[in-house]
TrEMBL record, chains A, B:
Domain HTH lacI-type: 17-71
Cited SMART domains: HTH_LACI
Assigned keywords, A-Z: DNA-binding, Repressor, Transcription, Transcription regulation
Cell wall biogenesis/degradation listed as a keyword: no
Organism: Streptomyces atriruber
The protein's name in its UniProt record: LacI family DNA-binding transcriptional regulator
Amino acid sequence: MRFQRSRETGGRVSTTPTVYDVAERSGVSIATVSRVYRNPDSVREKTRERVLAAARELGYVPSGNARGLASRSTGVLGLCFPDYSDPDTETEAADTDDDHAFMLYSDQIIRGMERAARRHGYALLIAASLKGGPESLVAKVAGRVDGFAVLARTVPTEDLDVISRRLPVVMLAGPRESDHLDHLDHIEVANEDGQRELTRHLIEDHGLRRLVFVGGEERAPDAQARFRGYQEACRAAGLPAGEEPDLRAEMMTQAEGARAADALLDRAGPGDGASAPVQAMLFANDQMAIGALHALERRGVRVPDDVAVTGFDGIPLGRLVRPALTTVRQPMRQLGEEAVELLVRRLGEERDREPVDLMLPVDVVRRASCGCAGRPAHGDLSGAEAG
Amino acid sequence: MRFQRSRETGGRVSTTPTVYDVAERSGVSIATVSRVYRNPDSVREKTRERVLAAARELGYVPSGNARGLASRSTGVLGLCFPDYSDPDTETEAADTDDDHAFMLYSDQIIRGMERAARRHGYALLIAASLKGGPESLVAKVAGRVDGFAVLARTVPTEDLDVISRRLPVVMLAGPRESDHLDHLDHIEVANEDGQRELTRHLIEDHGLRRLVFVGGEERAPDAQARFRGYQEACRAAGLPAGEEPDLRAEMMTQAEGARAADALLDRAGPGDGASAPVQAMLFANDQMAIGALHALERRGVRVPDDVAVTGFDGIPLGRLVRPALTTVRQPMRQLGEEAVELLVRRLGEERDREPVDLMLPVDVVRRASCGCAGRPAHGDLSGAEAG
DNA sequence: TTGAAAGCGCTAACAA
DNA sequence: TTGTTAGCGCTTTCAA
């Protein structure tokens, strides 16, 4: 017998009601109350109705925490993602129109995960990193879910290492970080293939030969992979390609893209080319490419006539800018869905399966900024796009 | 003394480690382990390090459930939203380009809530309704969060009634459902004002006089409010406006919008007008308006030359279609942020504050489909928009 | 600064 | 079909 609860059932001491209260009020045991919620059919209808009535009257809501604790599962999957906002775009005047059109990675992944999670009866807990939180982000999430996905480089590797020993974790995008983490499932996107194909397109289909690549940090795995794709395509075509990107940006923001474009233009010497002018600027992501479009417009450089510009990612904004941005589209939504599938399977039958490593294919999207496409806009309901 | 745990600390029986394991391994009490995570400064540094080392070695992660249970709080806020996917758009071939551009309400709200929640140190739990789940959606969410927001008409009123007695709930969009729920905080959007202003624009600025309004279900409060705004503007201008929308759509999808446009055209008699032709079709949401644009194009009716078309919501897709859709933009992101602010405040100082009822202002966005705007697209980086 | 002990509200055997 | 009971892993007084 548990100690008498410090509350008289009739005498207005409002604590949140528990199974005990419902049980007492409906004249059954707490086990029966529990059954009514977990497995209604295992309780006689008459009884069940009495219990539900009591619950209603008391305002009873089962405690997820208590349930989770007792049953060792939460019915929740998690997602940790970095604070991905582009400082350029994230102005104080929040609801600008650009902002609206600006749907990031994480939104797509969230959509994908939410949808898949729902299909499997899970809810989704999302949390973005915020530097200097008291406890590490992961810990907060990890303690509340049955398994979770992490966007690469969101959380310290060591934290992940500890946590992934206790529950399923799938790493999204970016290559395996290190051998420490090789027991994680892992889904990546074909960055190298995509950039190679896009570069090939510029070289072979548009006949461009003087290309430059603007990359990201050395430790940004996606940007690095894209650069490798670029190198490969150049070399395959017999064009020179250095060991390093022509330029590197730290945050890969629009502002940096604009600066890069300026620098590239200045580098060649202002105006008519003594050193032959660049024919194509390839950026490691769409944000930079869009910033570059702005900068080029300001300087009166025509795209794609004077120079072709390409990005990578396939963010919606890339389609709204003029000229529309040629890019490589990442299947972020699918990434989220696959992540959930992997988690669910590992929580079920495949508890001890070997870690998998999926590579999702990407699409080259040819728009106006590389010299493709450019149908008249009027009468076209879906936005011009060349195959 | 609790019963001996059925696990030898040295003898490979891998259970997930608990405070007890960490305590034992580091030679302290479980209380101290707990302190290390909750309030590190209250533990001597030497001790703390020993505890953390042990935790690391064991792969210890605090159980969110146990913590929540013991401390009666979760550090999580929730959002329940309906399964809002437009069946027309949600084809099996998931990653179509339209789909990409199609960012719903819920995404915006999620963004807003996530951001605000993060600022306050909360994580966000999201769950969409799925008909026929075993337990009601709310119950699942409600038990795991400190407070949550619900999109109007996502969950049965009675469930909300019970739950909102136990934890803070804020209702988003749509008017108060009933007097039962008048202890909930509530945030709505100025549907009526927005539609009134948009309608006034068509009448006064474009000189249109033969308007029709395509609404939603009678029980869809937003659509109803919009219709009222339409009525008011018509009457203010001395134009006739019936007691009912000219047409109602059940799901307010693109397909229904297309059908509505067809019906409206057929109603007037095919071809040259015996009964004077409609000059403007106003739809209760963007989805329908976009469907209508398709239908009109198929029939060779020019927009806005032959007929003006408007929507409501401000979804990104509305900007991509041609002609770009004139609409009223809802501040969904802000809706999410305000919701979190309300919840956080009610969880803090304002526990017993009177329920509030916020009304967020909207913007009329004038684009080409009403006859406004239409700047050349080339060289315009942000997409044409008239003030 | 640390420890002992009593729950937090529920589930899950096992009995009846 | 229903009841009994022993935890689930943590926080939290209260003492030391």
